[in-house]
Design goal:
With 90 residues, this protein is α+β, with helices and mostly antiparallel strands. The protein has two helices and four strands. Strand 1 and strand 2 form a beta hairpin.
Amino acid sequence: MPAEEIQRTAEAAVNFFDRVLGKKADVIAVEPVDSGWRALLELEEDAEYTRRFARPDIVGCYEVTLDSEGRVLSFGRASMRERARATIAK
């Protein structure tokens, strides 16, 4: 699994979020799966709402499935947390 493939996959996932959702996401994991790649990304959820109501920043963790060419096949939110709170990975 060459580093170039991992980087290309991470960039494809980030670009998808920027283009489709208009949000900046950070890649926290990339791994190969049977039909391509799985990436986990974090992004700040609805920052305007949280500021308006003096709530802590909410971070969403999204799972993205990409094919071997880096095309996004599916994505969905896996979890949410307050920015100040850590979560323990499986």
